[in-house]
Amino acid sequence: MNLRLLLAATATKRASAFGARRSLATAAGFANEPTSPSIVTDSVPGPISKQLSAEIGKWQEDRAHWFAVDYEKSAGNWIADADGNVLLDVFAQIASIAVGYNHPEILKLARSDEFITAAINRPALGNFPPAKWTSWVESGLGSVRPQGLHNIFTAMCGSCANENAFKAAFMAYTARQRGSDAEFTPEELKSCMKNEAPGSPDLAILSFTSAFHGRLFGSLSSTRSKEIHKLGIPAFKNWPAVPWPAVKYPLSEYSRENNAAEQQTLAEVEAVIVDRKKNGGGEIAAVIVEPIASEGGDQHASNTFFKGLRDITARHGVFFIVDEVQTGVAATGKFWAHEYWGLDSPPDFVTFSKKMQAAGFYHKLETRPNLPYRSFGTWLGQPTAILQARAIIDIIRDESLLSNVQSVGAHIFSSLSALSAKYPAHIRSLRGEGKGTFIAFDAKDAPTRDILLGKLRAKGVNVGGCGTAAIRLRPMLVFQQHHADIFLGKLEEVLNDM
After folding, report:
1. Which is the catalytic residue, given 70, 81, 83, 323?
2. Domain shared by 47 and 118, yes or no
3. Residue 416 belongs to a domain with what CATH number?
4. Strands 359-363 and 151-155
5. The one catalytic residue among 50, 73, 354, 490
6. Which pLDDT score, from 0 to 100, does residue 303 have?
7. Is 248 labeled as catalytic in the residue annotation?
8. Cα(247)–Cα(376) distance, rounded to whole angstroms?
9. pLDDT in tens, 343-401
10. Which one of 30, 91, 212, 487 is the catalytic residue?
């Protein structure tokens, strides 16, 4: 059928799907959210979504599409597709929507003269910052600084944030070796243009198996979650990865075994750092870790493990980078997931993106480069993203979304615990207790996981997977208990049919 005819044929269905709304707010900041999913096509994606993807496929990769979205019709925790289907969104654009679709305060910001001016006069921030740049940054990003990190670097995306944190760590590491006030030698200046030492030193970033830190060259060299990300792409071959601790879930029931696994990993981290410093082959300038190894399957570890990493890196003069691209901005029930660790000294870098709708990293003054143009780019982020981040932070405070995430997460976890007892083959290794709504569990296997996700989508619930067999929950911060109950009910319906 012609796409125009398909669109016309579903107009009535779309109107009907959005007819069942409440007149009062059903989630923080939202009025007239749908009360239940509505699937009006025989499958998801429907015919219009498929045709739209096919059209996109003529000029851009489309094989990862789930469905085409009608963002104007999406509201709060509900995502509408081009066919008129309305789904409860428990995936939130790969964990990147914080306060729901079309939040009234974000719409108000977007219509303001301040936002419009920032949007149509995009500056080269490193050379021509807006007069209001300090005000914009400090009133938003600056108000949620991780403790001890006073400098802020703005960037374009999560991969960019990690790449630039790597660069800053390398520059600070070599500056410390050279002496911060020492000038570059002629040999350094000449050799770096040939990609040779000493100007291009043999340094490395240590990461962990299951890690995902991005898809650019440096970040990709530290990514270890899936082969498909790395195949056919040159990498920094001497960048090591230490196995993530082989913990069992729930963490509280296996504390003795998990402590042994974590200590083994910590010993290996320290051994790599010491060996590289003693024998060469790429000294470790920084260790990067996610508070929860998200794309690699939502792998957890104890607070003691992360304290151990901080102690080891501090003891050996290695920078400690915490990648909060996915865990940051209140998703775990604290604004920053590493706040749970109770560190005696802060990380050296904390990177962010996704729910912040802006990207970059927080860091210490001593990791600022010694010369201009060393950490630089034309845009260095986007002022409109900084304004949106400010609005999101205000909404999180005004609507008490941290406490909402904690209470809703506790409800989801306890309900999933009950379901896991009833369906032990399909809800295994439940994890994320006490970490807000950042919850995951393993299905029987990868094929079963993918079937389960497809069946949930057909019932009007959009959920995602990660790792080899995990189902991960990534709801928005405005996700309420009644939304959770819809998800849990649909999940049980699907499990009954499995």
Report:
1. 323
2. no
3. 3.90.1150.10
4. antiparallel
5. 354
6. 97
7. no
8. 40
9. 999 999 999 999 999 999 999 999 999 999 999 999 999 999 999 999 999 999 999 99
10. 212
At 403-417, the pLDDT tens digits run: 999 999 999 999 999
Closest alpha carbon to 313 in 332, 291, 287? 287
Angle between helices 255-279 and 303-315 (to 10 degrees): 20
Residue length of the chain: 498
Give the pLDDT score at 9.
54
* Number of domains the chain is built from: 2
The yes-or-no answer on residue 212 being catalytic is yes
Task: Choose the final residue of a domain: 367, 397, 427.
Answer: 397
354 is known as an active-site residue = yes
Same domain as 189, residue 49: no
Domain boundary pick from 334, 363, 397? 397
Q: Which of the following is catalytic: 35, 217, 378, 422?
A: 378
Rg (CA), the chain: 24
Structure tokens at 476: 């928005």
Q: What are the pLDDT digits (tens) for 450-476?
A: 999 999 999 999 999 999 999 999 999
Domain with 271, as residue range(s), is 113-397
132 and 192: one domain?
A: yes
Reply yes or no on whether 323 is catalytic: yes
| Residue matched to tokens 């151990």 | 308
The answer as to whether 65 is a domain residue is no
